[in-house]
Amino acid sequence: MHVATITLDPAFRVAPVDRRLFGTFVEHMGRCVYTGIYEPEHDTADDLGFRRDVADLVRTLGPTVVRYPGGNFVSSYRWEDGVGPRAERPQRLDLAWRTVESNEVGVDEFVGWSRRAGMEPIMAVNLGTRGVQEAADLLEYCNHPGGTRLSDLRRVNGSKEPHDIRMWCLGNELDGPWQVGHKTAQEYGRLAAETARAMRMVDPRVELVACGSSNSAMPTFAAWEREVLEHCYDLVDHVSLHTYYDPAPVEKTTHLASSRDLDRMITTIAATADHVGARLRSRRRLTLAVDEWNVWYQSRFAGQDRLSYDRSHELIEDVYDVYDAVVVGSLLITLLRHADRVAIGCQAQLVNVIAPILTRPGGGAWAQTIFHPFAQAAAHARGEVLRVEPQVATYEDGLYGDVPLVEAVATLDDESGTLTIMCVNRSLAETVRLEAGVRAFPDASVLEATALWDDDPSAHNTEMRPDRVAPRPMDVTVEDGIAHAHLPPVSWAVIRLQTTRPTPTPHVSASLEG
Ligand code: AHR
To answer: Which residues pair with 483 in a beta bridge?
Structure first.
């Protein structure tokens, strides 16, 4: 049996856990909004038309922030269409997903819903077909207290208090030729800079995200960031990074190693941003917003160009299995391991469209396999991230090279004394024995340990069997300063230990004498 050893020490701190790492994404796309979060005719609908059964699942999932309203959708969106009396809102063509947008849900409804569901909204502005003025207008509508045409319009529309939205994305994936209003890096960099400047004039408290690459295979990957940031480095706070992993065309072992790509993307884009910062002699250090990430069976999707306006709304409702849940777990581990550089993560999307939650119009709502690693990480990754380096066998993968069987991270919550280990076993067939050295935590005892796995890793959840795949209790013992566990093949595991005050590793101080 393979053994994975890790050593946990309170001195190995990476950074505090930014709770915004556990974000999500709602786009006007497919059934994410309509018959996803919003369905006025549904039995569980609240008085504003939002499904209570979905909101309850969202609260259990526990995302902290939610990006809205797109995605590709935002690049031809007119936000004004979605405010004011519903009866007067126009039907519009949504060019991105070839559908008719009813505008029943707009910024006011969405902000209210997201806060009731326990999330802070992150708003994206349209820099595809629109520009500086419309972005500044939307910000004024949302955040200005009152006394101007747009802020008073918000008040008339029912939101007396400002929405007070802090995080704003300057467009979406404008490096992609599929994007409405696609731009060169220079065109976008200039537009992002001028939009940022104007938005900060409206509200200097905003945090701004510049569009980075749509994925690591883009021909302009990293060159795009370099050129864009040369224009707007000192005006933005974060640069975005999007990444989706398609299980269909690759071997399972390659799919299970997907987080190696995310790891490389993060280090590459951080280095690119630092390079620009150095050239500009800037004292600022940008952080990354991984504001779209997930598993997506993209090769099963015929593509936007094959869509037509007369079809049903259903779009890319991928069904996820245990392999996918383990990949999602390893992507969460990777985000946490880079907590010193990644400030925001948004799993894309929240409901129905490549999502942890599925719904049936007029029917139930249930959690997919990938719901569980997210919910557990969001609930338990608190305090500070501890660096963990598993010593374990590797396998050779055609795409990713040397891949360790086990990936892991830990967090330490100084307040409660809870030490949480999150790990995945990528082996298709073998259980791996985990030996976690916890000598630095005297009296560590097991609070709870679970593993998500299945004899059939292609198992998934359905409306009839929503708990077919879910975390199950796992045996963990602590002896002589080592926590022992057995990680089943293709599994995601969470081990929570109660510690008393950790003993800091003694400092070795050297003194020069004589
Ligand atoms: O999340 C689905 C789509 O993926 C988004 O609209 C776009 O930003 C990305 O390409």
So the answer is: 436, 478
